[in-house]
Amino acid sequence: MKRLLNIELQKLWLNRASKGLIITYFVLLSFIALLASVNFSFLGMDFRLADMGIFNFPFIWHFNTYVATWLKLFLAIIIVSMMANEYTYGTLKQNLIDGLSKKEFIFSKTLTVVLFAVASTVFVFVMSLILGYSFSSYTEASIVFTDLQYIGGYFLNMMLFFSFCLFAGMLVKRSAFAIGFIFLWYVAESILHGVLRFAIIKDGAISQQIMNFMPIESMQNLVKEPVTRFQAYKAIESQVSGNQTIKFYGIHWYEALISIFWIAFFLYMSYRILKKRDL
């Protein structure tokens, strides 16, 4: 296992573009901390986000993981590129000639996906702890470690997206086309949702329940948007409409199971594609 992971890490670190993207990704994640000190102006009022409570425990787990999910495209490009480079530079064929089996090859890519997901999750966890203890009004352990489900949801979100990227890179073999494939899949799910909602079922709730089984939708369900959960938003909403929207922001057990299924599916299909492909 260590040998396979070392092979992949050497390929990534010796590639200048991949190394640059990895560094850029973690630097951008660190920028979440800058939100604490930036002053914003709105309707003539100046305020600082740290003073609004977004870094309070336990809400910070939800907020930080949601913001971090938008930055995963940088690592997605790396994963897609590492598959494309295997075909472009012939390293895949050379690895197989040198005695690496196709199963070991996919396993090495899977280890890389897991490493990226774990590293990103640990980074967000540590950063959230630091920000929380620096700005939160509540630092009791019983409050601090409430809602850690979002850290688990974030990890599954990363694993699912990276597994999907690995599958796309294996299927398409070219970085730009693989990224395009991922984008088209997202568009296709959106179109399917619209067709179900307005042409076939014509019921928003049932259509949404069906879409929850799709990979992109199931990924988004792991870390739902936190804006409407924020107390300041609720206060504004109640003043405007006189009532508050009731929404579940946590992670249902079946949402986690659906995501785990898609992770296993994409990794298995990546292996099946490689196994049947004539290199």
In terms of structural class, how would the helical and strand content be classed? Answer: mainly alpha
Counting DSSP H or I runs of 4 or more residues, the number of helices is 14
Beta strands, count: 2
Helicity, as a percent range: over 70%
Beta-strand share of residues: under 5%
Name the overall outline.
globular
Q: What is the C-alpha radius of gyration, as a whole number of Å?
A: 21 Å
Biggest sheet, in brief?
2 strands, antiparallel
Mean pLDDT rating: 86
Number of domains: 1
Output the helix-strand order. Answer: HHEEHHHHHHHHHHHH
Uncertain ranges: none
- Strand order in the sheet with the most strands: 1-2
- End-to-end C-alpha gap: 24 Å
Structure report:
The chain has one domain. The protein has 279 residues and is an all-alpha fold. The chain is globular. The two termini are 24 Å apart. Helix content is 73%, strand content 3%. The longest helix is centred in the middle third of the chain and has 34 residues, at 102-135. It contains 14 helices and 2 strands, in the order ααββαααααααααααα. Strand 1 and strand 2 (45-48) form a beta hairpin. Strands 1-2 form a two-stranded antiparallel sheet. The protein has helices at residues 2-13, 16-30, 49-52, 59-69, 73-88, 91-97, 102-135, 141-144, 149-172, 175-200, 204-211, 215-222, 231-241, 253-276; strands at residues 39-42, 45-48.
